[in-house]
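PROTEIN DATA CARD
Card holder: SDR family oxidoreductase
Chain length: 250
Origin: Antiquaquibacter soli
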Amino acid sequence: MSARHVVVVGGAGAIGSVVAAVLAEQGMRVTVADFADASAVVAALPGSGHAAVPLDVTDREGVLALLGPDASVGHYDALVYAAGTNYTGPVATTDWDAWDRVLTVNLKGAAYFGQAASLNLEANPRECSIVYFSSTAGLVGEGGASVYASSKFGLIGFMQCHASEIARFGARANAVCPGNIDSPMLRTLAAQVGERNGVSTEETLAQFAGATAFNRLIDIREVAQVVAFLASAASTGMSGQSVVIDGPPN
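Structure generated from the sequence above:
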């Protein structure tokens, strides 16, 4: 039996690359699709048959060519949408160029991805898992996060609709909603929030870590392990769900 094939969109990033590594460690064949060069990520994966392909998630035709009915990546068993970007700032001073960039990558790109998957599944119905990266910011809003939260709230709604539509093909869609992940994106966010609040980046990170009873940030591998479960055939009884990866409130 051939290895389960998973395409990780945004797999060259700090989070996506760890997701790709965990999938490969569990015996899956991984295709990493990213705007950035993913060759080094793929070269480091255990196992064989992995590949790196270029992809701009804002290019609908490119997404369709890669994942649609005549998918250039070939047959796939699971898809992970790990592409994403962030912006922080109060509603009153919203940078609308940043708004467009965040919504385009986090939500519109995910919609292109979902449409391509739907068309592929219609042409070839099968058991298939689609995993979207949302966030706890897609469940509860907070000051300064209106742009990012809008994209992640919207993504959960999109995922729920998509899950309902593809169930007839034997496929499913779920979202992971991590809390504060120890990642370069979070450190950049902490620097921006800290500057706005007049405190250091490290103090801000400590505040983020203390937001749950874990009193620490979530490790990327902890998120990747949940993604790997959802991408596997072990999760066939789950669809339309938003899985929170975070500690209990402090």
